[in-house]
Amino acid sequence: MREDFLHYLWKYKKFDFTNAKTTQGEKLLLIDSGIHNFNSGPDFFNARLKIGNQIWAGNVELHTKASDWYFHQHEKDRNYDNVILHVVWEDDVEVKRQNKSSIPALSLKSLVDSSLINDYQKLFASSQNWINCEKSFQSITNFTLRHWQERLYIERLEEKSELIQDLLKKSGNNWELVLFQMLAKNFGLNLNGDAFLSMAQSLEFPIIQKASQDNLQMEALLFGQCGLLERPLNIPYYLELKKEYAYLSYKYKLSNAGVIRPKYFRLRPDNFPNIRLSQLASLYTRHRKLFSELIVSKSLEAVYSILSVETSLFWKTHFTFQKKHKKREKALSIAYKDLLLINTIIPLRFCYSQAMGNDEVEELLSLMQQLSPENNKIIQNFKKLKKNCVENSMHSQAMVQLKKNYCEANKCLDCAIGVKLLHGKA
Q: Considering the chain, what percentage of its residues have pLDDT values greater than 70?
């Protein structure tokens, strides 16, 4: 028996509460199960119930065994002094507060229908399944799934907001600088995201603004801070960058000592640091008020237009400083623009709208629903279970959130799908 199942039973009143009595034999009437607490402290706040002839208002704590109260040392914690009922599966010991007064206990073991217990056990029966409910996932209605996906995506947005809020705090709420830092991180993708972010954090925004007046100077700033101009190469373009960076370094007293050096290993040439940094430099050279433009853009087409940048001339014939190839354009692809929207622009707009006291959630959801879904292993596996479960990027982001934060953590009873399946109303 798992404690989260007890939470489910109490929260949704999935036990025979009409015949509920405390283990001391007093009649118990459940008026309000309270507010589920997911942080430290008692499991449910502000419950209301009647024990015998007395109405009580306070907190409820749940454990598999009553003795877990002492195992978790709640008797020493004042946060548990307002517990009015101890809900357990097995009442193996009397529990008391700090002041030695006894806490009434309710044992659910004899009050739960055996079929519900069997359904719960089946859900966790196989450790071989990709997700616990994979045999029943197909039965989930689109109505249930779509509503849950929207909530999951908002959760994911809030998680992505944590880094943004941290960067805002460190920058003194400089939104333009945080946009640059987030764009840099996501231009670096998974392999070089941390490296590019460390580069962006080593610069003050006025320096970026001044350098962005000239594309060569902007490239020199980014390449130099990333440590990509430290080799003895006799290549005219490389020497120009090196000269510009030396000037900028002297003028602004720059240091790249703490910047993580970018990697090339196992990267496709189009994702080499040189190419992505050149594209990032071009974006800031072409758009002097990038933050304002992105914040006010209402349509997907407008955002795509802003992000329609390519490398400088040298990189149209090179992937590295030394190897030349036939000339070709290296612009941001639609798929890459979508990644920037998903991981930078939409999360930043979400945070900005909250800070300004505006409600832009519906507009951001609409943008996400216009983007093509991602195609990774998680999405592929969910599609095998239910063909049309992912139709756009909001859905794919939601399913990644579902797999990582619920399925892998066995939090089926905090999941709308798991709850529906146990209710028998998928």
A: 99
**Residue 69 Rama label (left phi>0; alpha psi -120 to 50; beta):** alpha
Give 352-368 pLDDT, tens digit per residue: 999 999 989 999 999 99
Return the sign of the alpha-carbon dihedral for residues 271, 272, 275, 278: positive
What separation in angstroms does the CA of 5 have from each of 131, 266, 419, 424? Answer: 18, 45, 10, 16
Half-sphere exposure at residue 319, Cβ-oriented, CA atoms within 13 angstroms: 9
Q: Name the helix (H) or strand (E) containing 252.
A: helix 236-252
Picking from 44, 63, 48, 45, the residue whose alpha carbon sits closest to that of residue 4 is 63
Report field, pTM of the whole predicted structure over 0.70: yes
Any idea what DSSP says for residue 21? B
Interior/surface letters 128-147, b for 16+ CB within 10 angstroms, e for the rest: eeebbbbebbeebeeebbee
Question: Nearest Cα to 198, choosing from 219, 225, 217?
Answer: 225
Let me know if 186 is exposed, middle or buried by CB neighbors in 10 A (0-12, 13-18, 19+): buried
Please write the tens of the pLDDT for every residue from 186-210: 999 999 999 999 999 999 999 999 9
Confidence band of 126 (pLDDT split at 50, 70, 90): low
> Exposed e or buried b for every residue in 67-77, given b needs 16+ CB within 10 A?
bbbeeeebeee
Residue type, 158: E
The answer to whether 204 and 225 have CB atoms below 8 angstroms apart is no
